[in-house]
Amino acid sequence: MPVRVALVVEFLNTVDIDEDVDLLSNYAEYRQWAGERGLRATKRVVARQLRDAIRDLLAGGAAQLPHVELTVGIDPGGVPHVEGDDVATRVLSALLALVERGEWPRMKLCPNPVCLEAFYDRSKNRSRTWCDMAGCGSAAKARAYRQRRRPR
Question: What are phi and psi of 126, to 5 degrees?
Fold first, then answer.
């Protein structure tokens, strides 16, 4: 998976609904998460707003991204790039690259209400629904089957 995609997916999954874990709720855990990726921790409130806004967009909602100042540089070949090593800058830069390359529709949230994990759909026709077919997909299909088989 390209680095930009992995960063966005990992950032969006700093919250785990099923395990009731939010790595951005504790500054020490957030700093550790950022440091493991070679990034500087942005203000925690900005990181949470950014993550939640992107997740809302993936869920089909209308979200307002937090204000983040970006510095744009131009490399010797004339290609613009966002400069900075903080979480918000890197995530927004990766997000912009996904949009620019037409890959944004491949970013999805698992529709299982106890999961809601973000994932990148690598399927040829962009039809993947579940984060994991063995877990969430199989459980959803079993529920649907039981629902169809239920006496009326």
Answer: 60, 35
